[in-house]
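Handoff note, outgoing to incoming analyst
You'll be picking up this chain. Sequence as last confirmed:
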Amino acid sequence: MSNVVANLMLHSDPNDVPGLQSRLLTLCEEAGLDNLGAFQLTSAIVEAVNNCIEHAYGGEPGHRISLRWLAGPEEIVVEIRDNGRAMPTEATRGRATADVDAVCGRGWHIIRQWTDTAVYERDQNSNLLTLTRRR
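Most recent structure output, in case you need it:
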């Protein structure tokens, strides 16, 4: 299979998320992921986008969030970028928790459980999260 690249853009508006989720499921199907793999990867991406909306942009609508999807023969790589505030250090440094009463980190726990790698970096006033899922 050759590399498949898709560039997606949405705004920091929760109403944009269902359309994104639908497009991601189509990309997962085109990439040959089974139902469980598609559910897990799509859920991780949607959780990351919700983190952008809630934490990076403070729930303020209208800000850009971009996604770059690369489906290669061995793995799928998704880059999620926003220009909001930096993500909380305790979540991005691997101290995410599954504790339902925790204030921060539940979403990062899901992201890390359902992807093979999740790497966050602050890059020139923007947040970049790179998720990788092996086939």
